[in-house]
Design a protein that fits this description.
Number of strands: 8
Number of domains: 1
Strand content: 15-25%
CATH superfamily: Alpha/Beta hydrolase fold, catalytic domain
CATH class: Alpha Beta
Largest sheet: 8 strands, mixed
Shape: globular
Oligomer: single chain
Length: about 250
């Protein structure tokens, strides 16, 4: 498997950020790590191996990125407003720095991306998709929350609101956004076993919101033995990729 490592100083974040790319061709997949995670976690926890057939056949190309969760939502020593502002820096990094890098790496393709991740990465996969449907046309959000209460409690400001899909989506009626969502693949999934309680609740609420807006979606609840853990996530991601229309690369 072809791999490619990159590092650069991010003006948006004021620090070095790292990215590892897996594959030659295929639809770009932005992989957000679990809470506080790094670009290498997806490989270390066997997720890259789990989707190797999709990479080697040229159906997808993975871009595994760093998080700054420990500086933003999970930085419990900081005020929620400061954490939210730090996440906005991360948003600028993804949109203004990573996105052009991915397009260039894919020979300036205008194709939209898949956003995926597990746990906190599942939150990011959903939130970045809903905020930026000009960049993403697919989300596979696995075992993620879709609101920020477990991090910031009842605190709310503009930056928290617009990064909490359960809060902003019900009030979003812009026809352009709705049209983009309707043309996209929206996949939200969680198990019903240990440590999935918050995720189950949020997934039910997201299904209700999307149904109310007539936005096509797939909210999938796996079994009561399916825990919030890597062995199940290694089964989930290839299952959902197999259900997408991903054409193998042909020279």
């Amino acid at each position: 498997m072809q791999t490619d490592y990159h590092q650069w100083f991010s003006p948006a974040l004021g620090q070095d950020m790292e990215v590892k790319v897996y594959g030659y061709y295929g639809k770009p997949v932005i992989v957000f790590p679990a809470q506080g995670g790094r670009f290498f976690d997806f490989e270390n926890f066997g997720m890259v191996a789990a989707v190797e057939s999709f990479i080697e056949s040229g159906r997808i190309k993975l871009f595994c990125v760093d998080s700054v969760d420990n500086q933003s939502w999970a930085n419990f020593q900081a005020h929620p407003a400061d954490r939210a502002r730090r996440h906005q820096d991360y948003d600028r990094y993804i949109v203004e720095e990573l996105t052009p890098f991915v397009r260039q790496h894919c020979n300036d393709s205008t194709e939209k991306f898949i956003a995926t991740g597990v746990s906190m990465g599942g939150y990011h996969a959903g939130n970045f998709f809903f905020r930026h449907p000009d960049i993403f046309d697919t989300t596979i959000a696995i075992s993620g929350v879709h609101r920020l209460n477990m991090f910031v409690g009842d605190y709310m400001d503009e930056n928290v609101y617009f990064n909490s899909p359960i809060h902003y989506l019900p009030n979003l009626n812009d026809p352009w956004f709705i049209d983009q969502y309707c043309q996209s693949n929206i996949i939200l999934c969680c198990g019903q076993g240990a440590w999935e309680e918050e995720m189950i609740s949020d997934a039910h609420r997201m299904r209700q919101i999307l149904e109310n807006k007539n936005i096509p979606h797939w909210v999938d609840f796996w079994g009561y033995d399916v825990n919030h853990d890597w062995p199940w996530w290694r089964k989930m991601l290839p299952y959902f990729l197999e259900n997408l229309d991903l054409s193998p690369f042909s020279a």
